[in-house]
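Two proteins were folded this term; both appear here.
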Amino acid sequence: MKKIFVVLAVFMFSSSLVFAQKEAKPNENRTVVYTFFINVVPDNFQFPLIGFANYAHGDHNNLQAGFINSTKGKTNGAQFGYVNTSVGGVNGYQGAFINVCGNDLNGVQTGFVNAVASKTNGAQFGFVNIGGNDVDGAQFGFVNASAGKVDGIQTGYVNATADSLDGIQVGFVNVTGKDTDGAQIGFVNRTRKLDGFQCGFVNVADTVESGVPLAFISIVRKGGYRAFGYYADEYTPLNFSFRIGIKNLYTSFNYSVLLNQESISSYGFGVGSILPLSKKFFLNPELSFQNTASDFLSFQSRTVFNFSLGYDVTDNLHISLGPAISRTHTINVVEPIEAFNWFGTGISVNSKIKPGFRIGVNYSIF
């Protein structure tokens, strides 16, 4: 049996084809090595390369399958291996631990690291995906980066494009170097100019033109809305707030002192909008959530929707007044004393809905 394996091995090795071939260029001879282990072939070699290491001096329009696959020209086919490189470009598929395309990619790369030196017209699937120029397609990985524009989708933990985004980024951190005409959805979103949509915990934009940033904290450097406020309602005259975002959509952070047998502090969060009616008048709807808790078993929550009419005293000073409706839910906490006792209705033993009012003053800073 051993003799049979030895004979087969010798036969396979000796069956390797090694010969000299004239190429199109005059006075140039190039040796073709075509074996089961190493393949070295000239431009436009028409046969598949299957071996440990495969190297094409020019374009290759067929299959490369090996540990290392390299094409000096364009790859018009498929590369399967541990490391795939193509200097001229890829029109097809690269599947390896490391895939490198030296020019345009028109196809798919799947691997741990995928890199394209020029444009990507297709998709990259890997842990790290890099586009050296524009990406017209999709990048799916832990880290996705493009040195040019992205016209498509980036999905990963970190998504970044040095130019503009005309598509969508979904990840923990999304960064666009220029304009975003699409959507960024993640924990932290950053763009220069927003003409689309941001949804996250923290949104940062230099300017917002026709877009909407929705987040717990939205920071707009130019044309953003930041205001300190004071307001009073039927429960207490001592409420303070800080608003941040844009006038069309802002978030507010509230601090209140409830009227009770003793002073109790309460903290809250809200979202609202300033809708202009004229040069001086505006509507100011706002939904806020307030919580007071002494321990896990004693708390009160209050949800309030108010719809106020506002007036711009100056460019920075604004006043507002309007009706409100609130829902309170109380567990083992002394009910706050209302400044005005409005008629309400109970919806359970601990919950009730009551109408009210809100009057406020806000001073905006830019």
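Next, the second protein.
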Amino acid sequence: MKSFGALCLSLILFISISAQPEKAISNKDTYNWMFGASWILTDDDGESFNPFLVENLHGHLFPTQLIIDKYIYNGWSAECALTYSKYNPEKITNGSTDISGSMFSMDFNGKYSLYKLLNSGVIDPYMISGLGISLRNNNDTIARALSPTFNFGLGLNFWFTKQIGLQLRSTAKIGLTDFLKSSDYIQHSVGLVLRVEQFEKADNSFNKSRYKVSKKRKKIKYGGKKKGRKDT
């Protein structure tokens, strides 16, 4: 667990240093809302020294995470993530096999993007940190069934177009009820994101009349006298 704690401290320091304000950053928003759907790989084997053992990852063939992201200011945004994952009894969970069931989590994270600092239109690395809650519905008697978590992670977006991109992310979740113990786990995700830019104000030109109609009555003249003609 010492190496895992060192990793936590390193990431927190990296987030703090990288998130310092820069005068060169434009105040113009890069997007308004972002929506995402991702495939989740859950690492809950209890091996803190090997957080990327592929053979111990629990995964699915369909997207099990939904993300809603609201842009705020200068690369900062806030997101809400809903995640569902199912345990594979053949995989290792907290050092044991034959663990079946599922886990649901809800997370609220702050996010800082390096998109503007890199001045890149394709690569968009970012960092997240926040709080969440995990609910386990399985036969694992070691981990807590309900556990609030402290989250931090690193991610990367690859933008195919101005609106559609591929998102990669790894998030460590530290259980606050049994700090750095069995309730900790890591989730890796691969998904698609849709970015919606700032909506322009609607043009109300159709609501305004282009031609003004005067309501004043005009006098109409009939058979006016011509100049230079005398009556006989």
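DSSP finds two helices and nine strands in the chain. Confidence is low (pLDDT under 50) at residues 1-27, 205-209. These notes refer to the second protein only.
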